[in-house]
Automatic annotation (TrEMBL):
Domain Ig-like span(s) in chain numbering: 9-94, 285-391
Domain Fibronectin type-III: 582-620
Protein known as: Ig-like domain-containing protein
Gene Ontology CC annotations of this record: cytoplasm; nucleus
UniProt family annotation: Belongs to the protein kinase superfamily. CAMK Ser/Thr protein kinase family.
Domain of life: Eukaryota
Biological source species: Paramormyrops kingsleyae
Length: 620
């Protein structure tokens, strides 16, 4: 079915947002792509709408949509959503701390050690002693104002040592310990903060005792509470301190497993629980569990208003047929209200209502003209309306004519029953219409129609049929001899017929015949063979259709009926009546305030019928 003219497809995301990880003070860019350039979107952070500020920049570039977050902080580790009304896309921004060493030498806890997982060595000051370190593939030396950074690339166990920063007048040092899969741990002691030229040196590690330890499992970022609209998906995201840590997801005391309802994602240190098609019963606390460490977040589901997403469409049918209106709503297995001409419909065997998930169907069986009306469906505050148009079915026959055999001068009676009591019939004998007279009498009572033939004679023996679908075939004269394959039925055609029709009105020329076996028919106009697409031939008749008769269709038609036993011919003289042409030689004279004298000659073409009057109009 075609979309209605007012329908506009919803905006979709051709490229969704992707999760990102950035360091503190960095700039994060969340980017997605929509299906239309002029589509409007809104940005949200944990359900709260974001507007353009110094912190946030919202950019539209063709079909691209960007959210730029300046100077990221740990508090910016949230879920961000781009909302295009009918569709949404979300991503988690993970902001990692740029950790600096501690100045105290007290015993460190696991949390302290976790904060020292670095790929950078950071100090403030300058100068060296010992084995000097120079910039190369292994080491990078960076100066940012009073801040000086030593980067040890791809730390291995051989890199374990004390590292010192010497500023001539002051020094600071720290111990690098490489633990298992972690990159490096630095114990750093600050002594001064000065400007100057710096050099880094590497102390011989044999003078220092190194210790190896495994950090306890913990969260780098925890899942945040979510608020979603019913039917959308919710995503809880967290980060763990080690790639190999397993996270279990719980709702209440029940552990959740991946399936139709949930997706569980494990990507590096990122862990996520995705809840599909959120329902009101999905609300509540969800727990991410690493060993004995728990992180809890709440899911809030906003109930969506019931609305129609595929409206009703107008239907047109005939009497006695079945028709169905259908629509779709945004929620499965709900109940909607059906109205006819503003009144609620009571369902019965004639009108029934069925629901299949989000599809709602109203079926009307054996339609009558009384069912023609405006039908509406109401879903919540949403409403859709369509019209049912019913055309009157053509009259058909319920009972067939029965062959009759009577003795000469006896009366005969043929009867048939119609589908409608108001139906009109015509009776034919050998293709010619029968008119009432002394020997032919028509009777009609409701749906029953009868033909009475008084004092039957041998010339009354013929083929009778009623205009419509029903026919009667009179058996051979010797009714006691069944026709076999060698019996030939004589082809009987009307030898010459005159027909008069109106121009522009569809008309079908019908030639009935009687032949055995079935015959083929050919139609000719002025000896020109007519195309077969307008010809229909049946066992008892052949027809030629004129969809829009014109004056050029007027003339003599020849019909040839053939079977293996021979052929027969019939002729139709067709006259097409059309509007006359304008009068000729119109002359106006003797014009004065009392009137004028007009004269004219008849038109060259009178439309096929004698002109009976002329109309003269005087403009006011």
């Amino acid at each position: 079915a075609q979309e209605p003219g007012w329908y506009k497809p919803p905006v979709e995301f051709t490229k969704p947002l992707e999760d990102q990880t950035v360091e503190e003070e960095a700039t994060a860019i969340l980017e997605c792509e929509v299906s239309r350039e002029k589509a409007e979107v809104r940005w949200f952070r944990e359900g709260q709408e974001i507007h353009k500020t110094k912190k946030y920049d919202i950019v539209t570039d063709g079909r691209k949509r960007k959210l730029i977050i300046q100077g990221c902080t740990l508090d910016d580790s949230k879920t961000y959503t781009c909302d295009a009304k009918d569709f949404k896309t979300s991503a988690f921004l993970n902001v990692e701390r740029e950790y600096y060493s501690h100045v105290n030498t007290n015993k460190r806890t696991n949390a302290d050690l976790l904060q020292m997982i670095l790929t950078k060595y950071v100090c403030r000051g300058s100068s060296t002693y010992g084995s000097e370190i120079r910039k190369g593939k292994k080491y990078e030396i960076i100066a940012k104002g009073v801040q000086h950074i030593l980067i040890v690339n791809k730390a291995v166990f051989d890199d374990e040592a004390e590292y010192e920063c010497d500023a001539k007048t002051s020094k600071t040092s720290g111990m690098l310990t490489v633990i298992g899969e972690f990159k490096l741990i630095i114990h750093l002691y600050f002594q001064c903060f000065i400007n100057g030229v710096i050099k880094f040196c590497h102390m011989n590690k044999k003078f220092y005792e190194t210790k190896y330890s495994e950090l306890a499992a913990d969260f780098i970022s925890r899942p945040q509470s979510q608020e979603v609209v019913e039917g959308q998906k919710a995503e809880f995201v967290c980060s763990v301190s080690k790639d190999t840590y397993e996270v279990k997801w719980l709702k209440g005391d029940k552990e959740l497993e991946a399936g139709e309802k949930y997706d569980i994602v494990c990507d590096g240190k990122r862990r996520a629980l995705i809840i599909k098609d959120c329902l009101l019963q999905d609300e509540g606390p969800y727990v991410a569990l690493i060993g004995t460490t728990r992180a809890t977040a709440e899911l809030f589901v906003i109930e969506e208003d019931l609305r129609i997403i595929e409206p009703l469409e107008d239907c047109e049918t005939q009497e006695k047929r079945t028709v169905t209106f259908s629509c779709k709503v945004n929620k499965p297995n709900v109940t909607v209200q059906w109205m006819k001409a503003g009144e609620e419909i009571t369902f019965n065997k004639h009108i029934s209502y069925r629901v299949d998930k989000d599809k709602h169907m109203l079926t009307i069986k054996e339609c009558s003209l009384a069912d023609e009306a405006e039908y509406s469906v109401i879903a919540g505050s949403d409403k859709s309306t369509a019209e049912l148009i019913i055309s009157e079915a053509p009259t058909d026959f319920l009972t067939k004519l029965v062959d009759q055999t009577v003795t000469e001068f006896e009366d005969a009676e043929f009867s048939c029953m119609l589908t409608k009591d108001k139906g009109e019939v015509k009776w034919y004998k050998n293709g010619r219409e029968i008119k009432e007279g002394p020997r032919y009498f028509f009777e009609k009572e409701g749906e029953m129609c009868k033909l009475h033939i008084k004092e039957c004679r041998p010339d009354d023996e013929a083929r009778l049929f009623v205009e419509g679908k029903l026919e009667i075939i009179t058996p051979p004269k010797d009714i006691f001899e069944a026709p076999g394959s060698d019996v030939i039925f004589e082809v009987e055609l009307n030898k010459d017929r005159n027909l008069v029709i109106d121009a522009g009105k569809p008309f079908t020329m019908i030639v009935p015949y009687d032949a055995y076996p079935r015959a083929e028919a050919e139609w000719f106009y002025n000896e020109i063979y007519l195309p077969e697409e307008n010809i229909d031939t049946f066992t008892d008749r052949t027809e030629y259709k004129l969809n829009e008769p014109e004056k050029s269709d007027q003339g003599r038609y020849k019909i040839i009926i053939r079977n293996k036993h021979g052929k027969a011919e019939a002729f139709i003289n067709l006259e097409v009546i059309d509007v006359p042409e304008a009068p000729q030689n119109v002359n106006v004279r003797n014009v004065n305030k009392f009137g004028a004298t007009l004269s004219w000659e008849p038109p060259l073409y009178d439309g096929g019928s004698e002109i009976t009057a002329y109309i003269i109009e005087l403009p006011s």
